[in-house]
Design brief:
D-Maltodextrin-Binding Protein, domain 2, alpha/beta
Amino acid sequence: MNFADQRLLRWGAALSALLLLAAACGGDDDSDAPASTAAPATEGLTGSIEVSGSSTVEPITALVAERFNSAHPGVGISVEGPGTGDGFQRFCAGEIDISDASRAIKVSEVEACAEAGVEWVELKIAFDGVSVLTSPDNDAVSCLDTGDLYALVGAESEGFRSWSDADGLASELAAAGLGGSGAPYPDAPLVITAPGEESGTFDAFVELALEDITEERGQDEPTRVDYQASANDNVIVDNVSSNPTSFGWVGFAFYVENSSVLKAIEIDGGGGCVAPSIVSIADGSYPLSRPLFIYVSLSRLAENPALGPFVDFYLGDGFFSVAEAGYVTLPDDEISATRAAWAGVG
């Protein structure tokens, strides 16, 4: 019996107990009625589940929902991906059952949930690599280090209109031992389309690529603000692919899905240039690797009989959806840790 089956039996037993209690309290009980031969309660599951948050995690959860619905068509599941920050805002307001997240919950969001009385459990479900992109026509750029990324999109790069405008800043960073090895850059327009601040992919890029240098340089802003920000990954893909000297970043799956029209820039984290791939993300050699999560509302769990079985399925057969969606499956020990965290809930 697999993990999901075991948990489904538990939810089914709980629901059956409620049904028996209701029957015992009924006024028109027929003592001659035969014992029930109905299927287990979970087989006739009905209700609705609402999921919001990361556009990166959205494809995984959408696939899990599709597979769950094939067995439980009576459960309506809504999955949307406006961004990790937007998802946590709704989650901590008690409006949704699950928040998809491409970063861990922030202290301010923990406090917001606590103030609203929303209890939750964090479940790691996959790995992703923030993929830094340009057009396949950009032959001048193939590998950048974090100093280069800061020189191009950090707070001090505001106003740079061409790649070569960042040469001076990159030289300063190199002199301070902070990177910038990719300079001099091409004398070509720097056209940036990337996630905005509502996105967990934005937060991950800032944390993994820019944060240390930003602090070292005494800057307050996480990035330059004069680029085209979009919460829609498809807009980023379209803009980057259509401009020969473009620059942007998305989650790994969106790069893989559009790799015929995009070029992933290799990242040098100090050990040489590494391209994003399933192998490099899984073993951590790609410097911009990150975990992905779902957060389940325990406050809504008790009120929504469909939610527990759905999460059980997610952490059972649903794990197959991770690779299908283009992301990197957790190693066995981390899958076990995620399941243990959920098993400890009920």
